[in-house]
Each structure stands twice: as C-alpha cells, then as structure tokens.
Amino acid sequence: MAVSLDDKFESLESILAQHLPADVLQKVNLSLRGSGSIEVELPANAKETAKQLNFDLQGYQIKVALTEQTRPSRLVRIGAIQNMIQKPTTATVKEQRDAIHQRIDQMLAVAHECQVNVVGLQEAWTMPFAFCTREKYPWVEFAESAYDGPSTKFLAERAKKYNMVIISPILERDEAHGDVLWNTAVIISNHGNVIGITRKNHIPRVGDFNESTYYMEGNTGHKVFETDFGRIAVNICYGRHHPQNWLMYGVNGAEIVFNPSATVGALSEPLWSIEARNAAIANSYFTVGINRVGTETFPNEFTSGDGKPAHTSFGHFYGSSYVASPDGSRTPGLSRIRDGLLVTECDLNLCRQMKDKWGFRMTQRLDLYAESFARAIQPSYQMDIVKDSSSTK
C-alpha cells in the first residue's frame, strides 16, 4: 500500500526520536536543523495549561548572534499559533467564529505567560478554509472589516492587555471599495491599535485551491511594519513559492517575516520545511512558517477539474509550524495533528551580522535584475538562449 503524506503521524521529530539512539539523534538533528536552535524551559504552569487544553507547546532559542560592543542585544520572543477549526462547518458562522476566538484566547494567554512579544496566527484563522468549495455563501459571511471587525476588536484588546503585537490574517470585506474581498493580514500593535494591513500578493490556481473565485491578488505591495519588537512583514501563504516576494520584504528592511498558510500534505509538505528557511538565509531575516492543522469537511461535494472523484475535504492540513534564522538554523516543527504554540527567542542583531558575514545584500545585484526584469515584461521580449550551431535539433 502506498504511503500518503495525509497519514496523521505526530511529527517528523517524534518519529526520529522514537527510532534513533540518543547520540545518533543528536547528530541527525544538528544536520537537519543547524546548531543555533536550542530548547528553552517554559513556565511550568504554561506547560500544564497546554497539556490540559491539548495543544503542543514548544520553546526554543536561536542562540547564534554575537555580543556586539556598540549595539545592545535585541531579544524578541516570537509566537506562532496553529489551530484546527472548533465546530463543524455546518454550524452557524457566529458559532464557528466564536469557538475559534475562544480557542485562540486560551492560547494567547499561554503565549503571554511565556513572555511572547509578537505572535502570528495562521491564514484565514477565523474560519474554515472553504475556498475549495467555490460556494459563496455562507463562507463569504466570515469576511469582516480589517479595522473594526469582530476579530480585530477581539485581538486588539488582547494585544493591549498582553503588550503583544498580533498578526491577524483574515478574509477582509473592503466596504470602502465596493465590498470586495481580500485575503489580508492585520497588524495589531501591542498598544491595541491597528498599525496597518497587507494583502496576499500571489493567489494559487492549483488543485483544490480555488481562491480566485473569492479574491484576487493584493494591492498593498511589500509593506514592512515598524513595531516595538522589530520590523515585521507578512508573506501570506502561496507567496512563499515566489522568491522575489520574499526578496522585496528584505529590500524594505524586514527583520521578521511571517508566512501564515493553509496547505495540505498531499500537495506541498516536501516543500514546507525548505521555502521559509531558504528565504531566511537569502534575505538575512527571521521567518515564521505557520500552517493550519486538521481536516475540514464541508457539506457539499466539490471537484477541481482534475479528473479526480468529487470529495468533501481539502485533505489534511499538516501544521508543522517553525521558525528559521538568517544563519540557516531552524526550530523543530509543531505537531502535524494538533493545535500548537511555538515560542522562539531570537536576537534581531543577527540579521545585520549575517549580512556582514555572507554579503548577500552587498552582492545581490538589484540593478542587474531590475534591468533584466524590465526587458522580460515587454511584449517584444525574446529569451536570451544561445543555441548550439552544430546541433541538428
């Protein structure tokens, strides 16, 4: 029988720990994750609460940054929250959203206890990822105002209470511009105000990801938000497949880039551990990959024009959220099958230190690529291919 990545095992890390001797496991982990990520002790009460509420709680420190003579350390604790929906998709919109709010409320309280400064939630965290269905109602009723919708009001109170910046990716209803929908991340300050919004730049047309039925590519560019805990950007889901998308957040000075996502094992799991980590290295910033978790079943069958039988589920959202560092180190991933909170302490000084060490920004030749891209977008462009004159093909 063929093995499927929809098989619901806990995590890669748990399988390795179960089958490898301790000394071998240590070497394997060093090879897989680098030397920078070490486990940190979290408060006993936080661990007990996570156990009682059945979510995975892990804590790490990226201990790589040098102690500088002229700059103090800039230690920041990043939180990444992944969660399942809490009610069947047949429940009312309000029942579903309220239940998710309650779950996130519990996890934010634990994040505060773990001294998290900035926390990111998963893509469209307030709702089931219903964009596979191509049905408009009731799913578009989850859309809300980015500035004064119920989820923003709920999180703004928590952000101020906990002195925590919160990244809130929602389905946005843009009432000021014809009631259109957007896939949007709201950046909420630790003072309780909305700093601003950023929208999803790249929209998938693959498999069951029928998102352009609901919203199109975003129009906010590559905004970076200056906060009390560093310069933050948000590369929403499918944008992680586009290196130039990651690049521009770095060009605009990001130090932490969140990648809130909703992706399933059969489609993308082999890519997941690579893309955000590559971006952290190439752009000299920290990345935070956050993926939805669980399997969501919808009332009506749907197809995706790929010849496969009609079905009612997207597949298994495999969680596995992690943080990657500009030196290439990364944390282990959260559970593939349970809600989770990942706490990672890092020193933002490492961003500049890696630029100094590797020189990626100094050598990236933006001028060269700007010129090449300017030519490539012209209708008259011809690919610069040099053919072998002796070839008979």
TrEMBL record:
Matching InterPro entries: Aliph_Amidase/BUP, C-N_Hydrolase, C-N_Hydrolase_sf
Family matches, as SUPFAM superfamilies: Carbon-nitrogen hydrolase
Listed GO biological process terms: beta-alanine biosynthetic process via 3-ureidopropionate
One MF annotation (Gene Ontology) recorded for this entry: beta-ureidopropionase activity
Top-level EC class as recorded in UniProt: hydrolase
EC number: 3.5.1.6
Pathway(s) of this molecule: Amino-acid biosynthesis; beta-alanine biosynthesis
Entry keywords, A to Z: Hydrolase
Range of residues in the leader sequence: none
Domain of life: Eukaryota
Residue ranges of domain CN hydrolase in the record: 76-348
Similarity comment: Belongs to the carbon-nitrogen hydrolase superfamily. BUP family.
Protein known as: Beta-ureidopropionase
Source organism per UniProt: Rotaria socialis
Lineage summary: Eukaryota, Metazoa, Spiralia, Gnathifera, Rotifera
